Amino acid sequence: IDNMVVAHEFGHYLHHRLQECGTKQCGAMSEGWGDYNAAMMALRDGDNLDGVFSDSTYASFDKTGYFGIRRVPYSADFTKNAYTFKHVTDGVALPNTHPVSPNGGPNSEVHNAGEIWCTAVWEGYTSLQKEADGQSFDELNRAMSDYLVGGLMMTPTDATFTETRDGILATARAADEDHFLTLANAFARRGMGSCAV
To answer: What number of H helices and E strands is found in the chain?
Structure first.
């Protein structure tokens, strides 16, 4: 009934086939990969790239259809999703500039921290689509998919957010300098720039 659930679970499969992990941070990325896969498969050519993309709205019983199964929907628009890397840390207050679902728990909980990973990857993906530079929607989907798969393959066991970011950026850098810069800037906007720890 809700294909986003299937897409989310396939994101876990993709992640664990390409990245060996057993840590909480790597587990959080797996939740983020699942959400990203679901959101990417829901996006259609011509959609508002600054819109909101909620994961599994039907399965969540979210009567508003806004939050889905997460605390905020995914969006490149900071007025709708202002999450950055700092929000994986327990005790860091969530943004108060937009609605946040009352469903909660600590920031480091794997689903909550996974929202941060997905938000950063979504920022990169939508940035590539916005800066298409003559490439079609489908060509950019393929390029982003290649960067993500290549990046996962380049990471160490129990990779951190920043190690996985580095793998993705290295893969993009080897293929297209402009895409590399777009993705690096997108990660930086979400708090995962070159100095992030």
So the answer is: 7, 0
Q: What is the pLDDT of residues 44-77, one digit of tens each?
A: 999 999 999 988 877 777 777 788 889 999 999 9
DSSP state of 30: H
**Tokens 């905020």 label which residue?**
72
pLDDT score of 196: 93
| 136 φψ region: left (φ > 0), alpha (ψ -120 to 50), beta (else) | beta
Sign of CA dihedral 158, 149, 186, 66: negative
Cα 116–Cα 83–Cα 14 angle in degrees, nearest 5: 20
Residues shown for the chain: 197
**Rounded distance between C-alpha atoms, residue 53 and residue 65, angstroms:** 10
- Residues of the chain below pLDDT 50: none
pLDDT in the model for residue 1: 57
Which tokens go with 34?
A: 């699942």
Q: Would you give the DSSP letter of residue 196?
A: -
Structure tokens at 99: 């609605």
Burial of 93 (0-12, 13-18, 19+ CB in 10 A): exposed
At 78, phi and psi to the nearest 5?
Answer: -65, -15
Question: Are the CB atoms for 82 and 95 separated by under 8 Å?
Answer: yes
Spatial contact of 88 and 5, defined as CB atoms under 8 Å apart? no
CA angle at 153 for the pair 179 and 167, rounded to the nearest 5°: 40
